[in-house]
Design goal:
333 residues; alpha+beta; 10 helices
Length: 333
């Protein structure tokens, strides 16, 4: 029972001060059981504040199951990665280099006439009316722009909600126009380095940027979208979001509420997933999940306990991540 030894020994090390250690071990043994029964191939990071309580990798990085998964291997975070362009927009707004009411055509040339009323706020909230991406292997930024140029709007800007990755590409292009740098360079300078994300990168062309990518993602190289992170780096990003390193915490709170068009309960107004408030308006938690297509991610932040959980996998089974999250939440950290 290799995984039992790994998990239980970690529990004894990290949680020996708990009054009921036996109960804690039973709870963590249940997590190990899920890992084995569900064939979990991925990584678990559990932290409280600045302290990482548990970090373990399970399975393999390659399709042939010959390369053990390590802490240096990166996953595609899927929709969770949309937070990076969201933060980039917020950073530029905070430094008065753009306003959310600016038109995207102020920064991007060659867009169709129907895009002239789309604002930065629209692309941050998926209310732009931009069409869905037509996926193909190795789709590029140029392909995405061409799809906008040749496409038709789903609705008038601000009149509805349509979740599309084209919004994210537009954000990245606006960052490039304002900063004069590629988004791959910008995200390194303004987010990765600031948060201490030493193993993450942005794929910029068809050739693999590193041999650390876990098998199972869909090959793309689109500005703002083709980002790879380690689970530990994603935890560092979440920590940096709320310690004021990237933006002020009050900025984040201001863009959680406001969604009226998605029809999804507690969906954040800007691209940050879901949040929960109590009846007094106190922020209890926020959570974001993503997929691409066999890579799955959940990032959960509990503001009451201060715990942060990052789960990333490549086994194609997203439900396993939710089962693991619920089992982890049962442990009194």
């Amino acid at each position: 029972m290799k995984f039992v030894v790994l998990i239980v020994s970690a529990v004894i090390l990290q949680f020996s001060t708990q009054a009921n250690e036996a109960e804690s071990i039973r709870e963590w043994a249940a997590i190990e059981s899920l890992v084995q029964e569900r064939g979990f191939n991925g990584s678990i990071v559990i932290a409280k504040g600045e302290q990482v309580l548990f970090h373990q990798n399970f399975g393999y990085a390659d399709a042939a199951a010959s390369i053990p998964l390590t802490s240096k291997h990166v996953f595609s975070p899927g929709s969770v990665g949309k937070e990076f362009t969201t933060i980039s927009m917020m950073q530029l707004a905070a430094s008065n280099k753009l306003t959310y009411q600016d038109k995207i055509t102020d920064y991007i040339d060659g867009l169709p006439a129907w895009a002239s009323e789309i604002t930065i706020e629209h692309v941050l909230t998926h209310t732009s009316g931009l069409p869905a991406v037509q996926w193909k292997k190795h789709i590029s930024t140029a392909d995405a722009v061409q799809q906008i140029q040749q496409g038709q709007p789903v609705f008038e800007p601000g009149a509805g909600y349509h979740y599309t990755n084209l919004n994210v590409v537009v954000r990245a292009l606006i960052v490039e126009r304002i900063t004069g740098k590629s988004y791959s360079d910008s995200v390194v300078d303004t987010i990765f380095k600031v948060a201490g994300m030493t193993d993450s990168f942005h794929q910029t062309d068809r050739q693999p940027a590193a041999n650390t990518v876990v098998a199972g993602d869909f090959p793309t190289h689109m500005a703002g979208l083709t980002i790879y992170v380690t689970p530990l780096d994603l935890y560092k990003f979440e920590r940096a979001l709320w310690n004021g390193s990237l933006v002020k915490a009050e900025q984040l709170r201001q863009v959680l509420e406001g969604d009226r068009l998605s029809g999804q309960q507690n969906r954040a107004y800007f691209d940050f997933g879901r949040f929960m408030l109590d009846q007094d308006g106190t922020l209890l938690s926020w959570e974001h999940d993503g997929s691409n297509p066999s890579h799955h991610t959940i990032k959960h932040h509990d503001f009451i306990t201060g715990s942060i959980v990052v789960l990333m996998s490549s086994d194609g089974n997203k439900s396993t991540l939710y089962q693991l999250l619920h089992a982890i939440q049962a442990v009194k950290l």
